[in-house]
C-alpha cells in the first residue's frame, strides 16, 4: 500500500486528494510537491482509514463556493505534515481530528508550514487539533507561520490524554488568540 502522489496539479475540486474510506485502511501514502488551486473544501482530506501519511511541500489555495475551506484535514493516524503553503482558508489551515473507534495511540508532527487565512473569518484557526475519542501518543507542532485575523493561531482541544506534546517556535501573526 505504498503510494506516492507527486508533482500533480488540481484545479476547482471539492477535495483534490482524498484518502481512506470504506474499502480498508490506506497506509504509507506520501503526498508531495502538488499544486492545488480553487479548493472548495479541504484540498487534502484523509478519512479515519488513513495511516502513516506524509504530506509535504504542497501548495494549496482555497477558494470556491462551498461554505468552509480547510487546507488539510486528517482524521486518520500517524501523520507528518511539513513544508506546505496553505492560502485562503476560511475555517482551518490544518485540521487534525482523529476519528477511529479502536485502541491506538497515534502520533502527529506538524512543522514548517505557512498558513495564510482570508481576513475577517474570525471563527477559524491556523492549526486545529481536536481529539475526542482517542489517546494521543505524541503531538509536535513547531516552526509554523500563521497569518491573518484568525480566532486561534493554534487551537488544541483534547478530551482524552496526550502522552507527549511539544509546541515550539511558531510565528503567529494577527490572531485573536495565539495558542
Structure characteristics:
7-stranded parallel beta sheet; mainly beta; 179 residues
Structure description:
By secondary structure, this protein is mainly β. 0% of the residues lie in helices and 55% in strands. It contains no helices and 20 strands. The chain has strands spanning 3-6, 9-11, 17-19, 26-32, 35-39, 44-46, 50-56, 59-62, 72-74, 77-82, 85-89, 92-96, 107-111, 114-117, 125-131, 136-142, 145-147, 152-158, 162-168, 171-173. It has a 7-stranded parallel β-sheet with strand order 1-4-7-10-13-16-19, with no helix packed on it. The protein is globular, with a radius of gyration of 15 Å.
Task: Give the helix/strand class.
Answer: mainly beta
Summed over residues and divided by their number, the pLDDT gives a mean of 85
Spatial sequence of strands, sheet with the most strands: 1-4-7-10-13-16-19
Shape: globular
Main sheet overview: 7 strands, parallel
Q: What letter string, H or E per element, gives the SSE order? A: EEEEEEEEEEEEEEEEEEEE
Give the strand content: over 45%
Q: For the CA atoms, what is the radius of gyration?
A: 15 Å
Number of strands: 20
Helix count, per DSSP? 0
How far from one another are the termini? Answer: 36 Å
Low-confidence stretches: none
In percent, how helical is the residue content? under 10%
Amino acid at each position: 500500500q505504498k503510494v506516492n502522489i507527486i508533482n500533480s496539479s488540481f484545479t476547482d475540486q471539492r477535495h483534490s486528494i482524498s484518502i481512506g474510506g470504506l474499502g480498508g485502511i490506506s497506509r504509507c501514502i506520501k503526498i508531495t510537491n502538488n499544486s492545488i488551486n480553487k479548493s472548495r473544501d479541504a484540498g487534502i482530506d484523509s478519512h479515519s482509514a488513513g495511516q502513516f501519511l506524509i504530506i509535504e511541500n504542497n501548495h494549496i489555495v482555497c477558494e470556491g463556493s462551498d461554505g468552509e475551506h480547510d487546507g488539510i484535514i486528517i482524521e486518520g493516524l500517524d501523520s507528518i505534515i511539513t513544508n506546505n503553503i496553505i492560502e485562503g482558508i476560511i475555517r482551518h489551515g490544518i485540521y487534525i481530528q482523529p476519528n477511529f473507534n479502536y485502541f491506538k495511540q497515534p502520533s502527529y508532527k506538524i512543522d514548517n508550514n505557512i498558513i495564510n487565512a482570508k481576513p475577517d473569518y474570525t471563527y477559524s484557526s491556523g492549526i486545529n487539533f481536536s481529539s475526542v475519542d482517542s489517546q494521543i501518543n505524541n503531538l509536535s507542532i513547531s516552526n509554523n507561520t500563521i497569518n491573518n485575523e484568525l480566532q486561534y493561531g493554534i487551537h488544541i482541544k483534547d478530551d482524552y490524554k496526550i502522552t507527549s506534546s511539544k509546541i515550539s517556535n511558531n510565528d503567529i501573526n494577527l490572531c485573536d488568540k495565539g495558542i
